[in-house]
Amino acid sequence: MKKISICASLFILVSCAYEPADELTIYTSRQPQLIEPIVEKFSLETGIKVNFLSGNAQELMERIDVEGDNSPADIFMTVDAGVLWQAAERDIFSSTNSKILEENIPSYLRDPENKWFGLSKRARTIVYSNDQFNDNDFSTYEDLADPKWKGKLCLRTSKKVYNRSLMASMIDAYGFEKAKEVVTGWISNLATEVFSNDTNALKAVSSGQCGLTIVNTYYLARLLDDPQYDNLTLFWANQSDRGVHVNISGAGIVKTSKNKQAATLLLEYLSSEKAQDFYASANKEYPVLDGAMVHASIKDWGEFIEDNINVGKLGSLQKEAVFLAQEVGYK
Ligand code: FE
């Protein structure tokens, strides 16, 4: 009798220790429709239910801070390495050691301390009007500072983290002074005031208000669904030197999560081939997993050489990028 009860309590101990969480909560600033379908598949396969709380990245980070030990958040998911880096600086994440994540995600697309991981790549490059120019007219981001582009360039505001990250990549590549020279040139070549978003900058190129801009490629992919924007052409910048600027969407496990094992399982799932085929193409971005599918509509843009600076640097140089923009009057 006594023997049986010891076995029973041992069994309970063992099963408690290995019992996977049956519920996870993701705080996400990424549009839910881009992740829900693939996360539903994960739930079907594992029996782990996943809840979402969507919102603005800054507000979600604030919320995790305020909730402290009681936060229901297991995973924080967002876009741009600048924001992921900030989350790590705020001590929101714990490190996740996983061979699968290390194998699936190239090291330059994840935090060196494994606090966050890139799950899709977003390339930011030149788009021009083929009514005015052709591929031979373009080479690098830096070339857009040349006076030959006067009155031709349209840019999104420097207040957007995407452009801060792009400037950070130039600060890393050339140093602050040279990067500042480039951005000064951009500003003197502006055709008009800066735009609040990439789509409006693209529309201004298409309408002839300017000749070229720098945007994340998925915005172009969305517009090209409409034939009226057929005069927009993508150019992969810096293909004969450091490569095109690449950023990420990504996620990390929240420090106070009580379900780290299940959360790791979910991140591993999102980096796996079956999820990567969907995850990046849902937003016409690029997968982080080598060989995973890209959306049919962007296949024609072909392969490109990427700037493989560790994306964490885009975060750590963010303040300098903001300072640079202020110095040169890039609004
Ligand atoms: Fe975006």
Topology:
Elements: H1 2-18, E1 23-28, H2 36-46, E2 49-54, H3 57-67, E3 75-79, H4 81-89, H5 99-104, E4 117-129, E5 153-154, H6 161-174, H7 176-188, H8 198-207, E6 212-216, H9 217-223, E7 232-235, E8 245-253, H10 260-271, H11 273-279, E9 286-287, H12 311-316, H13 318-328
Parallel strand pairs: 1-2, 1-3, 5-6
Antiparallel strand pairs: 3-8, 4-6, 4-7, 4-8, 4-9
Helix pairs in contact: 6-7, 6-13, 7-13
Bound molecules: fe (iii) ion.
Which short descriptors sum up this protein?
binds fe (iii) ion, 2 domains, D-Maltodextrin-Binding Protein, domain 2, single chain, alpha/beta, nine-stranded mixed sheet, disordered N terminus, 13 helices, 40% helix, 331 residues
Report the end-to-end length measured between terminal Cα atoms.
78 Å
As for the number of domains, it is: 2
Order of helices and strands: HEHEHEHHEEHHHEHEEHHEHH
The ligands found in this model are: fe (iii) ion
Oligomer: single chain
Summarize the structure in words.
The chain has 13 helices and nine strands. It is α/β, with parallel strands linked by helices. Strands 1, 2, 3, 4, 5, 6, 7, 8 and 9 form a nine-stranded mixed sheet that branches. It is globular. The N and C termini lie far apart (78 Å). 46% of the residues are buried. The structure holds fe (iii) ion.
Task: Give a short summary of the structure.
With 331 residues, this protein is of the alpha/beta class. 40% of the residues lie in helices and 16% in strands. The chain folds into two domains: 10-121 and 248-294, 3-Layer(aba) Sandwich (D-Maltodextrin-Binding Protein, domain 2), CATH 3.40.190.10; 122-245 and 311-328, 3-Layer(aba) Sandwich (D-Maltodextrin-Binding Protein, domain 2).
